[in-house]
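Our preliminary data section would be incomplete without showing what the modeling component actually yields. Below, a chain of 85 amino acids is followed by its predicted structure, encoded as tokens that our downstream tools consume directly.
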Amino acid sequence: MAKTGSKVLLAAIVGLAAGIGVGMLIAPAKGSKTRKRLKKRLMGMADILQDDLSEKLNAFKSAFAVEEKEELPGAEPRLEEKEVK
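Predicted structure:
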């Protein structure tokens, strides 16, 4: 079963690469223009992904910062600790 899945994945990757190659060959624009457009689109996608990753990283950091503030020494004991007396 795993061998079949890897063969299908390999076939899909080869098909994708062949499709991109053929598409670039029959594209109506010159190769240099096509490469510039492709680079511009990829850079735009990279910026979007970087911004999204930054937001998620900041949210992750702030979630841990809140937990650290709650456990600072000298802070009010939690409800469970007060009842244990």
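Residues 81-85 have pLDDT under 50 and may be disordered. The chain has three helices and no strands. Preliminary results of this kind motivate Aim 1 of the renewal.
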